[in-house]
């Protein structure tokens, strides 16, 4: 990959690193209902190799407008390769960005932020000298000594967060997981990779047998940081009535125990994270997988409904819990909340995609939270969705059969892989009201699909089914299969800013930890037996009544599963 883009931006009020050039161009102070006027704050963030990200904050200082057109001219060879939050076009050096339906309204003093990824040749990337909005030139100068962006019109940022916490940072290696990985033959090849630390029950806060507690992890993280920026990845996973559409990871809190969730789980975690000793860490929290999307996809009248998801929708405790977690954790200035957005095999259909983004926005504004508490989203947590399907597209036409409509594997899904899904979800979330700067994470711990069965080219162009099934890298029996998948491999190694809009590839599900037991195993963790983890199961409405594709002899969810660890290493892609 030669063109690497980063799509998160510092919120207003954040000190911009010295490597970032800032051009501030302002008209005089705003006056309500005055003649047309505008201010544009333009920031170019160079990331080497001739690539850069452009952030453009537009502030309307004149009468309210319901749509706008921004124009500027690049002084050099710069080219916009991809833009967001506006319709971008470029002719020669002249760039035009017009408003979208959702950000055209700008009252007096109102502002909006748009952005793009661009490229330039040569050694300098000089900022445009002038901008116009609806034909009016935005003029004026920022104080020449300033390296901060202005805060006009935006709520104060509670912290000093950077745009992409993974950029220029180490990522915490969980020594508890490393020890298990290292004890496996060949495991040392991946044992030093950073993985997620799961707070999967109240007891995990203080530590359980074989797993240190939260403060001990954070102490170790400070040691690993040794003065450099370091990200530690925590999974917040203990909602009341957890995982309502499956049984394998049901948790300890009953559907109505929202108060225990707040006082015995979130409050103590937030208190520990807020300790001054941890202020220099970048604490990434993956907030509540297996929750909100269930309220869209697995409730009455869908054929996929479960009674438990109906209960969680009716009692509102998923929304309340997520809102509370975001508010409490987001109040800690060095916490970066990433909200779970499932994966393309769950929310990639049109009737799930938009409604999920809207529901997430509702939760982000519940229980005293605001959207400012959401730094981004994470896709594919603990799932197996391939990062990129290179050998087919949804609109391929095979002998008159369009893949999206006729290939059973796709079955009208709008997306075929996690990268496409994550990038599109980011945009849809912004449309739902989230900040334009939100970034995505993708869990690549187990979506490699390498090994001997990996196709090396497209399938036969006979039928849409043959074409897709012959060429797809994701070798699952059905896209809805999620438990201990046979044939899966370790995916992309953790990496910062790998693609446009993506803050990082991460390993949140620690490879080798089971998704669920393949038969009933009594336990005191609240874990049930889900037949999707039983290799003999013939399926249900959520996986098209297909075989589960699960490995045999699996232990309880979260417990060490040596055979799976070995299989994941064997099928790693890129190979180990
Ligand atoms: C389990 C958790 C575990 C996590 C990571 C989940 O499926 O329910 O107990 O910590 O996976 O392995």
What does this structure look like?
The chain contains 13 helices and 23 strands. It is of the alpha/beta class and 576 residues long. It folds into two domains: 24-137, Sandwich (Immunoglobulin-like), CATH 2.60.40; 170-570, Alpha-Beta Barrel (TIM Barrel). The strands form five sheets. Strands 11, 12, 15, 16, 17, 18, 21, 22 and 23 form a nine-stranded mixed sheet that branches. A hairpin with a 2-residue loop joins strand 22 (495-499) and strand 23 (502-506). The longest helix has 16 residues, at 258-273. The chain starts with 20 loop residues before the first strand and ends in a 6-residue tail after the last helix. Residues 1-34 and 141-158 have low confidence and may be disordered. The structure holds beta-D-glucopyranose. The site of beta-D-glucopyranose has 9 residues, from loops.
């Amino acid at each position: 990959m030669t063109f690497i883009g980063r799509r998160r931006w510092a919120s207003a009020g954040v000190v911009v690193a010295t490597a970032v050039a800032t051009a501030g161009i302002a008209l005089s102070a705003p006056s309500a209902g005055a003649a047309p006027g505008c201010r544009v704050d333009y920031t170019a963030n160079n990331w080497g190799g001739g690539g850069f990200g452009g952030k453009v904050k537009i502030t309307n200082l004149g009468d309210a407008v319901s749509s706008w057109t921004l124009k500027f001219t690049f002084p050099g060879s710069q080219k916009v390769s991809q833009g967001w939050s506006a319709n971008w076009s470029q002719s020669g050096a002249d760039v035009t960005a017009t408003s979208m339906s959702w950000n055209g309204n700008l009252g007096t003093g109102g502002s909006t932020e748009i952005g793009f990824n661009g490229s330039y040749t040569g050694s300098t990337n000089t900022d445009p000298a002038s901008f116009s909005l609806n034909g009016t030139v935005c003029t004026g100068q920022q104080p020449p000594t300033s390296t901060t962006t202005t805060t006009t019109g935006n709520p104060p940022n509670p912290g000093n967060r950077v745009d992409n916490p993974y950029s220029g940072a180490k990522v915490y290696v969980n020594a508890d997981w490393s020890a298990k990985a290292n004890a496996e033959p060949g495991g040392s090849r991946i044992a030093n990779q950073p993985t997620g630390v799961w707070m999967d029950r109240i007891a995990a806060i203080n530590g359980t047998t074989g797993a240190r507690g939260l403060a001990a992890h954070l102490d170790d993280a400070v040691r690993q940081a040794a003065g450099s920026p370091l990200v530690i990845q925590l999974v917040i996973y203990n909602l009341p009535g957890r995982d309502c559409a499956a049984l394998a990871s049901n948790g300890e809190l009953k559907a109505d125990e929202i108060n225990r969730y707040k006082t015995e789980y979130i409050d103590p975690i937030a208190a520990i994270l807020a300790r001054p000793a941890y202020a220099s860490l970048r604490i990434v929290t993956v907030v509540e997988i297996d929750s909100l999307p269930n309220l869209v996809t697995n409730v009455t009248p869908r054929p996929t409904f479960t009674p438990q998801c109906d209960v969680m929708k009716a009692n509102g405790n998923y929304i309340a819990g997520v809102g509370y977690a975001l508010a409490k954790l987001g109040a800690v200035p060095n916490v970066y909340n990433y909200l779970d957005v499932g994966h393309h095999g769950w929310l990639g259909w049109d009737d799930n995609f938009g409604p999920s983004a809207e529901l997430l926005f509702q939760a982000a504004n519940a229980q005293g939270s605001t959207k400012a508490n959401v730094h981004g989203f994470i896709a594919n947590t603990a799932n197996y969705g391939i990062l990129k399907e290179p050998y087919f597209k949804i609109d391929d036409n095979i002998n008159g059969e369009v893949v999206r409509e006729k290939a059973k594997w796709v079955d009208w899904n709008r997306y075929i892989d996690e990268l496409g899904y994550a990038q599109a979800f980011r945009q849809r979330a912004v449309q739902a009201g989230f900040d334009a700067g939100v970034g995505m994470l993708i869990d690549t711990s187990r979506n490699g699909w390498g090994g001997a069965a990996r196709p090396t080219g497209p399938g036969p162009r006979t039928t849409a089914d043959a074409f897709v099934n012959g060429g797809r890298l994701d070798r699952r029996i059905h896209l809805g299969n999620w438990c201990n998948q046979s044939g899966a491999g370790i995916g992309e190694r953790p990496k910062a800013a790998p693609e446009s809009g993506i803050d990082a590839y991460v390993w949140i599900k620690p490879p080798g930890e089971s998704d669920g037991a393949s038969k009933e195993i009594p336990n005191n963790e609240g874990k049930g037996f889900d037949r999707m983890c039983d290799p003999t199961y013939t399926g249900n409405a959520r996986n098209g009544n297909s075989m589960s594709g699960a490995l045999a002899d699996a232990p309880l969810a979260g417990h060490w599963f040596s055979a799976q660890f070995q299989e994941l290493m064997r099928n790693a892609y890129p190979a180990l």
